[in-house]
């Protein structure tokens, strides 16, 4: 069967909601609001004499007018789901994969137009209402009768907890107080859904989460990582972090941040350390998403198509460099509480907080089971987040050598570090930002970016000199000294001091004569 068209866009939510809450009938849903695959499923289950329902997120998405790439199907009765999925695959294609032991649930994996569509088939052995009563939030505790898709113009919506009304009101509400005790990962799913959908959490549900926030410590590191990164990838991530904090979840995930809550900073900083860290996340979004701002902060910030592409690239765990940078922004000053000193004059210092912060960040992200590449990027960015500001003094622009060494040391994390530095600068000044100073700082970062691009072009040319050439010309033995000399030539080439092979050999000769050739 041709699967193209199974992943279709859906009409406006008002089309779907038009038959809801009608006094003369059960709530109903426009079948066109569902992916085309739903009709194929309805036909299949009807032909097999089975009663099946679309449940969970696909129903919620249909009511919101959103495209759903995953369908959860519950079959009434005690059936062998693998057998059902396998038989379905013979009609519409795909591959059946058990996801719960004893074939209690099976995933049918389909590929349509280069997109993956999963159909998870499970048992509703004790009936659909019992199945829905075990779900976490009202907006996900709804079902659509597949048979009604085939036999009626409007699909029957089963909604025992008022999920449709909560969607209309934009509310995340638990189906029962005990849902978080049954599965503490739901503590994180509530704020993640709020971020994803732009909803608010019901007051009683929020109260229950605060009371049970400590249970998140029993959730697996992988689940915490996934829910946290999904939350951070959404817009307004700083707002979501503040929600996590109000719910008591943030410092149960990151106990190290509790120390930062009340740590005051020098007068140059508007916020205490924890608030500053959250504000930094907001400024990362402001700059990288090019949000419109009344103070003209964004327009003077360097930006390019290359930069935009960089932050859209995947860093690992299925998430982008931008999502990772938001997490780094939250953690970048994690070392400050343990490095704060106050001199007799009253001057505050946080000497070495970037080094300690890098060590702490590595331990935290390793604890959350982030992939090694993401951890290495984060450690570099935290360790060097002050460096862009320190590459030159006053109004002077960084030298070509300073830019070269920065890019050499930071490698793949150079761009991320520049934008964390910009965001850190904005968050530190807060409402007291001086526009002229900000312009000067942006000029410095823009100069680094431009010089970096020029140097990349220069160094993409063939090497001016080789290790063999150095050894033959100067009668040197192989060893670290040769690599050090080549690096000095590359640095000089990047900074424009040498541009020909003869000049490169003269530089090596001068270095050897000066005695500075040791690695």
Describe the structure.
The chain is built from 25 helices and 14 strands. By secondary structure, the chain is an alpha+beta fold. The chain has four domains: 13-169, 2-Layer Sandwich (Beta Polymerase, domain 2), CATH 3.30.460.10; 177-253, Hydrophobic Seed Protein; 260-458, no CATH class; 467-514, no CATH class. An eight-stranded mixed β-sheet has the order 1-8-7-2-3-6-5-4. The chain has a two-stranded parallel sheet with strand order 9-10. The protein has a two-stranded antiparallel ribbon with strand order 11-12. Helix 9 (186-197) packs parallel to helix 11 (221-233) and helix 16 crosses helix 18 (372-383). The N and C termini lie far apart (65 Å).
Beta percentage is 5-15%
Largest sheet: 8 strands, mixed
Oligomerization status of the protein chains? single chain
Structural class by SSE content: alpha+beta
**Which runs of at least 5 residues are low in confidence (pLDDT < 50)?**
1-25
Distance between the termini: 65 Å
Number of distinct helices: 25
Q: What is the global morphology?
A: elongated
**Radius of gyration using CA atoms only:** 29 Å
Please give the domain count. Answer: 4
- Fraction of residues in helices? 40-55%
- Strand line-up of the largest beta sheet: 1-8-7-2-3-6-5-4
The count of DSSP E runs of length 2 or more, i.e. the number of strands, is 14
Mean pLDDT: 86
Structure at a glance:
The protein has 519 residues and is of the alpha+beta class.
Reconstruct the topology from this structure.
Elements: H1 13-17, E1 28-29, H2 37-47, E2 52-55, H3 57-64, E3 70-76, H4 81-92, E4 95-100, E5 105-112, E6 115-124, H5 128-133, E7 143-145, H6 146-151, E8 155-158, H7 163-169, E9 171-172, H8 179-182, H9 186-197, E10 200-201, H10 203-212, H11 221-233, H12 237-246, H13 250-253, H14 273-288, H15 305-312, E11 314-316, E12 319-320, H16 321-331, E13 341-342, E14 348-349, H17 353-367, H18 372-383, H19 387-390, H20 400-410, H21 414-429, H22 435-459, H23 467-474, H24 480-494, H25 501-514
């Amino acid at each position: 069967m041709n699967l193209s068209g199974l992943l279709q866009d859906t009409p406006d939510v008002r089309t779907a909601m038009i038959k809801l809450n009608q006094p003369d009938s059960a709530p109903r849903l426009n079948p066109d609001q569902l992916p085309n695959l739903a009709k194929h499923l309805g036909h299949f289950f009807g032909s097999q004499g089975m009663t099946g329902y679309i449940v969970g997120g696909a129903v919620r998405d249909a009511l919101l007018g959103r495209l759903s790439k995953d369908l959860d199907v519950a079959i009434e009765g005690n059936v062998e789901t693998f057998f059902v999925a396998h038989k379905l695959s013979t009609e519409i294609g795909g591959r059946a994969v058990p996801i719960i032991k004893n074939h209690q649930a099976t995933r049918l994996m389909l590929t349509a137009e280069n997109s993956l569509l999963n159909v998870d088939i499970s048992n509703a052995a004790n009936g659909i209402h019992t199945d829905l009563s075990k779900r976490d939030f009202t907006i996900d505790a709804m079902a659509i009768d597949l048979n009604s898709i085939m036999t009626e113009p409007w699909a029957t919506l089963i909604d025992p907890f008022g999920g449709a009304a909560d969607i209309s009101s934009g509310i995340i509400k638990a189906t029962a107080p005990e849902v978080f005790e049954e599965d503490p990962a739901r503590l994180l799913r509530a704020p993640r859904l709020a971020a994803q959908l732009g909803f608010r959490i019901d007051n009683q549900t929020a109260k229950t989460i605060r009371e049970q926030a400590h249970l998140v410590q029993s959730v697996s590191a992988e689940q915490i990582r996934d829910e946290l990164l999904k939350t951070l990838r959404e817009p307004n991530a700083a707002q979501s972090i503040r929600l996590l904090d109000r719910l008591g979840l943030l410092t149960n995930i990151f106990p190290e941040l509790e120390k930062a809550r009340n740590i005051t900073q020098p007068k140059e900083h508007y916020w205490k350390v924890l608030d500053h860290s959250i504000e930094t996340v907001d400024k990362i979004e402001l700059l990288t998403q090019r949000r419109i701002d009344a103070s003209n902060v964004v327009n003077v910030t360097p930006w390019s198509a290359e930069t935009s592409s960089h932050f859209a690239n995947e860093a690992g765990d299925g998430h982008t460099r931008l999502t990772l940078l938001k997490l780094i922004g939250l953690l970048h000053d994690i070392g400050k509480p343990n490095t704060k000193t106050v001199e007799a004059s009253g001057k505050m210092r946080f000497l070495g907080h970037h080094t300690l912060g890098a060590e702490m960040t590595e331990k935290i992200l390793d604890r959350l089971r982030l992939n090694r590449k993401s951890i290495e990027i984060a450690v570099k960015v935290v360790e060097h987040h002050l460096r862009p500001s320190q590459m030159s003094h006053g109004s002077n622009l960084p030298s070509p050598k300073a830019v070269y060494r920065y890019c050499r040391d930071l490698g793949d994390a150079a761009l991320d570090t520049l934008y964390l530095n910009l965001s850190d600068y904005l968050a530190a000044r807060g409402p007291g930002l001086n526009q002229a100073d900000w312009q000067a700082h942006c000029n410095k970062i823009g100069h680094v970016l431009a010089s970096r691009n020029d140097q990349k072009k220069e160094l993409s040319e063939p090497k001016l000199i080789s290790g063999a050439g150095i050894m033959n010309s100067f009668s040197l033995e192989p060893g670290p000294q040769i690599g050090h000399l080549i690096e000095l030539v590359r640095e000089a080439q990047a900074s424009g001091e040498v541009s020909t092979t003869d000049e490169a050999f003269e530089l090596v000769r001068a270095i050897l004569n000066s005695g500075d050739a040791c690695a």
